[in-house]
Fold:
Amino acid sequence: MSLLENPPLADADGDTRDKPGSLLPVIRVIPAEAYENPTWKGLAYFGRDLVVYALVLVGLFTFDHPLIVAALWVVSSLIISALFIVGHDAAHEALFKTKRLNSVVGHLAMLPSWHVFEGWVLGHNRVHHKYTVRQTMDFVWHPYTAQQYAEMSGLQRLRHKLEWSWLGAGAYYTREIWWHKMMVGKPPARWVKPIRRDRWITFAWIVATCLVAGIFGFSKYGSILGALWLPIKMFVIPFLAFNYVIGSIVHVHHIQPTIRWWGRREWTKFRGQMEGTTILRVTPGMNFFFHWIMIHIPHHVDVRIPMYNLDLAANAIKEAFPDVVHDEKLSFLDFVRNTQVCKLYDFEAGEWLSYDEAMARHAASAAPEAVPAPV
Structure:
């Protein structure tokens, strides 16, 4: 494997300083071929995923047997995830060499997941990637402290318990990321126009597809209930299922007992991008849908690496930094265990806590110091 002969003059954020905590030493070990992104290859992945998505829609329209429909919902959540990851790569401008083609494919690929392309670019590229696992900055699965949890109302605590459980990853993602960040959040002034435009594009897609499905549903079933059921079956439930898949994926990328979140002064790019995420090896065949996004460390080191070259970059990074890279098999049971342990966070100690541990620690810190009895 030939290494990059002419290493980048800067990291993905334009930093040219090889200072403590810099990512440049990591970027320099990535092979040059890991950055190759021929246009035909990106279009091939996009086209393949579109064909599978279209076939799933045909299946959901055609079949009504509960077992077949349930199976198609699972496949729909995975193929929407595949298209979303293609759009995610395009949003990073890693999939193609031209900004225009990345934008066109990115917009189209994110429509089935009902995501606002420019809203994603702002929140994901400019915030999450720039400040990964940094306190008060990275909003994606940002942990709450025991103090914050103690100040929550009963309903807010109940919501936290749901969203930070293995069952609630989709609820968290739908509310916190999709709704608040994609659909209604107020962007900075310079981002208002493109995000507002893309929100209208996304809204028009949702209305148009559901309306057409409703018309066909009335024709197929001959009732108002049928007109309501078909768009729910073809678009709403697959969207919610996708949110669970993507919410779970993002969780395992950045939340587990060995991953530390850092205070603003302690955080560095190296800690955020090398120690703040993972490499998770999936079952053979699953990259048909996941497009290697579970090999997440090289993606965070340099977003310019296209998805299909992440494995190549990961091998080089792991060889150079074997004691830093977190590399293991993806396990659903590990995800469940992580959600049981990682509930609240102690930023001073740099560790995850269960609810009982966090509240016991909070109570101890809030208790008044014992006053010595008078002699």
Observations:
- The longest strand covers residues 279-281.
- Residues 34-363 form one domain.
- The two ends are 77 Å apart (CA to CA).
- The chain has one domain: 34-363.
